[in-house]
Structures are given as structure tokens and as C-alpha cells.
Automatic annotation (TrEMBL):
It comes from the Bacteria. Residues 4-118 form the MTTase N-terminal domain. Belongs to the methylthiotransferase family. MiaB subfamily. The lineage of its organism: Bacteria, Pseudomonadati, Pseudomonadota, Alphaproteobacteria, Sphingomonadales. This is tRNA-2-methylthio-N(6)-dimethylallyladenosine synthase. Monomer. It comes from Sphingomonas sabuli. The keyword Metal-binding applies. NCBIfam families: miaB-methiolase, MiaB/RimO family radical SAM methylthiotransferase. Binds 2 [4Fe-4S] clusters. One cluster is coordinated with 3 cysteines and an exchangeable S-adenosyl-L-methionine. Its cofactor is [4Fe-4S] cluster. Keywords: 4Fe-4S, Cytoplasm, Iron, Iron-sulfur, Metal-binding, S-adenosyl-L-methionine, Transferase, tRNA processing. Residues 140-367 form the Radical SAM core domain. The gene is miaB.
Length: 435
């Protein structure tokens, strides 16, 4: 049966959210309607993540749960990075999977749905030279803060990471395509654009860099804010750092993963930066934009990590004073060099280190939030809060701020930050824009 309704569930990174949006737009253009509840969907697309084992296992248990109480089930498309990594094997692992489509092939999904409706079980994990982006429909509607993929893939080959295998080689989308998509997003209601890439700061096209792109996009009428993520420390060029000092639309926030504070572990990870070079980069960024919020990613329990290595990680957390950070237990991924390294770390050790790291990070996060209490700033209102009459907006430093207001999503609001919590702030209205 040809599906008439669909539901997309995206896991993992922001690029998967972006891909999920684009898949939805494509299906809608072909006449399918989006439904809120997956029990009502004729087609369910699971847009999966392969980064850690837990994320990948989740994909299969989610597929199993799509069977309805009456024994029927929707058409199931496995998309995203698990689909890329597993390929046809996914069909053997679950007879419920009708379609397997990788992150570089999803523009073919409508065709594949038609094939599946005829009883086939198509698989496409190609990484074609012709970009999927060229086959996708124009952007029409956008959330107040909208994602825009400008760069995809990775050539860095950190020894723990699947991304070079699931997302392929580094590619940069062309300048004109990005500018056109950005304008369409702003026309569709976006006030903020978050430029996405696995190594977003490695974006380049025709000799132009991400800094050039940011400077140009900042001039788009109606666009209030720009952000970009995720950056690699070795691609943090001086022109990009300078843009943080003089492009008002570029928000004072930088996600710059370091992964470990031990140079020995960084070498084993093939990170191509040292703790010193990382800290020098942070210093330069802070010189350009003193109030910038720094965020990061950490892995604890990489093979061979000693207590001394781990303590060096705690030290770099103290040295940087992160405004926020994500930390993970090392997860051995099939096919990556680290998976077969000696001296894999026992689970209890990893758990203990993760807890110590997270409490250290939480202390700095609260300190950062407290340092902003009392400031007058601007919010981009995004969504309703839990309490009546409350909305949640983002500060320039990406904090969630609760504020009593009836302002609609997409409104820019001047507030005073009145109270700091561990994970969010409270704000009070200064005055509303006559928007
Ligand atoms: N195990 C644990 N964490 C990982 N990450 C990437 N690969 C792994 C892995 N094999 C983390 C890194 C990266 C973030 C997106 O996920 O910290 O920056
Ligand atoms: Fe997960 Fe990485 Fe794929 Fe994003 S790119 S979905 S984080 S594996």
C-alpha cells in the first residue's frame, strides 16, 4: 500500500535534525502528510545515530516497538548513520525494516517508498558525487532558530570515531546554495541560523572561508543571529576568531571539543592538536570576544587512559571554565582503530570518571550562569515554558531563559537575567520590540 501519512524520528546530532526536516519537506512535497503520533503513520522514518553503541542499539529496539497493538505495522524506513553502517545487514536483523537509506542518499527516499509499496526492500547507502542537496525542495517554513548544513563529512579520522565512515569525506556546499537556503529560511520565519557541519570551520568554497560566509550571511535582512557548530580545534582560523570580535550577529558561543586533557591520549586519539595549542586557541577567542561561552565534548575511558590522564582532563576543564560541556564514556565502535587497542578500560572505572567529570563541569556551568545574572540582554523566544504565561528563549550565550510574557516564538525580547540555575536562567521583561 502506498503510504499517505508519515512520522520522522531523529536521534543524535543536529545534522540529523536537519536531515529529518529535509526528509519531511520532501515527503510533504510528494503529497504525504505529517502526523504527530507514529501509531497514525503509514510510514515511519527512523533517522538513526551510530556514534556510540547505546545510540545504535536504540535503533533496533525502536523498530521493534513500531508494531501496533492490533498486530499491524507501518512501512519502516531505517535512515541515518546506523543505516549507513549496517546496510543490507539491517534487513536481516529485523524483518520489519522495509527501506534502508544512508545520510547521503535520502533524496531517493520517495522512489524507495514506491518500491517498498510494491513489495521490494530497497537499500541505498551510496555516497553519490551528485549532492542530495540539489534534489531537495526549497525551504519554506522555518523555526525561529533554524539549522543549515554547510559542510558534511570528516577527513580527520580520530581513532574512536565512526563519522568518517558514516558521513563520508569532507564536502563543502557551494556559497550560492547556502546563501539561497539562508534567505529562504529567513523568509520562512527564521531569526537565527545555525550553520552545521561535522567540521563546520573547515568549510571553504572558491577560496572563501567560514568567516567570509558568516560576514556575508550577517547582512541578510531580518536575520538577527548566527551560530555554527561543530568546530575542530585545528581549523579555528584567525579570520574566524576575528569575526567573533566584529560581527554583531555572530553569537558569543563556541562549541570546541577537546575530548581529553592528556597529550598522550590526544595522540592516541589522532586528534592533531595538543592541550597547549587548544588552550592558546581559547585564549585568542577570548581576546576577540571576552564574554564568549565556551562549550566542549569529552570522552572518558579511552583505551589506555590512566588516572593521571583523567586528572589532566579535569585540569583542562578548570583551565577553560566551560559554560557547558558534553561528556561520554568511550564506546568501542566496530571498524575504528581504537576498538582493537590494548588496555580497554573497565566499565566501573569509566562510570566513576564520568561522574567526577560531570560534577566538575556542572560547577563551571553554574558559575558561568551566575556570572550572567543581573545582565541586561536579548532573547530569541523559541517555545512555551511549562508554567502558564511563560515562554522560553535563548540568550546570546545559548542559555535557556524562562520569562513571563505572551510574546510569540520568533520575537526578540529585551530582558534582565534575574536568577541563575544549573541548567537555565530566569529573565524579566525590559521592553518588547515593536515587531
Ligand atoms: N565513544 C564515546 N564518545 C564518542 N564520541 C564520538 N565517538 C565516540 C565514541 N566512540 C563523542 C565525542 C564527539 C561527540 C559528538 O561524541 O566527544 O565530539
Ligand atoms: Fe550520530 Fe555522528 Fe551520525 Fe550525527 S553524524 S547521527 S552524531 S553518528
Amino acid at each position: 500500500m502506498t503510504p499517505k501519512t508519515f512520522k520522522i524520528k531523529s536521534f543524535g546530532c543536529q545534522m540529523n535534525v536537519y536531515d529529518g526536516d529535509r526528509i519531511g519537506e520532501m515527503l510533504a512535497e510528494r503529497g504525504l502528510s505529517a502526523v504527530g503520533d507514529r501509531d497514525d503513520a503509514d510510514l515511519v522514518v527512523l533517522n538513526t545515530c551510530h556514534i556510540r553503541e547505546k545510540a545504535a542499539e536504540k535503533a533496533y529496539s525502536d523498530v521493534g516497538r513500531l508494531r501496533r497493538e492490533d498486530g499491524t505495522r507501518p512501512m519502516v524506513a531505517l535512515a541515518g548513520c546506523v543505516a549507513q553502517a549496517e546496510g543490507a545487514e539491517a534487513k536481516r536483523r529485523s524483518e520489519m525494516i522495509d527501506i534502508v537509506v544512508g545520510p547521503q542518499a535520502y533524496h531517493r527516499l520517495p522512489e524507495m517508498v514506491a518500491e517498498a509499496a510494491r513489495g521490494a526492500r530497497p537499500v541505498d547507502t551510496d555516497m553519490p558525487a551528485i549532492s542530495k542537496f540539489d534534489a531537495l525542495p526549497r525551504r519554506r517554513r522555518a523555526t525561529p532558530s533554524a539549522f543549515l548544513t554547510v559542510q558534511e563529512g570528516c577527513d580527520k579520522f580520530c581513532t574512536y570515531c565512526v563519522v568518517p565512515y558514516t558521513r563520508g569525506a569532507e564536502i563543502s556546499r557551494p556559497w550560492d546554495h547556502i546563501v539561497a537556503e539562508a534567505r529562504a529560511l529567513v523568509d520562512g520565519g527564521a531569526r537565527e541560523i545555525v550553520l552545521l557541519g561535522q567540521n563546520v570551520n573547515a568549510w571553504e568554497h572558491g577560496g572563501r572561508t567560514l568567516a567570509d560566509l558568516i560576514r556575508f550571511l550577517a547582512g541578510i535582512e531580518g536575520l538577527e543571529r548566527l551560530r555554527y557548530t561543530t568546530s575542530h580545534p585545528v581549523n579555528m582560523g584567525d579570520d574566524l576568531i576575528a569575526a567573533h570580535g566584529d560581527v554583531a550577529e555572530l553569537m558569543p558561543y563556541l562549541h570546541l571539543p577537546v575530548q581529553s586533557g592528556s597529550d598522550r591520549i590526544l595522540r592516541a586519539m589522532n586528534r592533531s592538536h595538543s592541550t597547549d595549542s587548544y588552550l592558546r586557541t581559547i585564549e585568542k577567542v577570548r581576546a576577540a570576544r571576552p564574554d564568549i561561552a565556551i562549550s566542549g565534548d569529552f570522552i572518558v575511558g579511552f583505551p589506555g587512559e590512566t588516572e593521571a590522564d583523567f586528572e589532566a582532563t579535569l585540569q583542562i576543564v578548570d583551565a577553560v571554565r566551560y559554560a557547558s560541556a558534553y561528556s561520554f564514556k568511550y564506546s568501542a565502535r566496530p571498524g575504528t582503530p581504537a576498538a582493537t587497542m590494548e588496555d580497554q578500560i573497565p566499565r566501573e572505572v569509566m562510570e566513576d570518571r564520568l561522574q567526577r567529570l560531570q560534577s566538575r563541569i556542572a560547577g563551571h556551568q553554574l558559575a558561568f550562569n551566575r556570572s550572567t545574572a543581573g545582565l541586561d540582554t536579548r532573547l530569541l523566544i523559541e517555545r512555551p515554558g511549562r508554567r502558564a504565561g511563560q515562554m522560553i528563549g535563548r540568550s546570546p550565550w545559548l542559555q535557556s531563559v524562562h520569562v513571563q510574557t505572551d510574546a510569540a516564538p520568533g520575537t526578540m525580547l529585551d530582558v534582565t537575567l534575574t536568577a541563575a540555575g544549573p541548567n537555565s536562567m530566569t529573565g524579566a521583561l525590559l521592553r518588547q520590540d515593536a515587531a
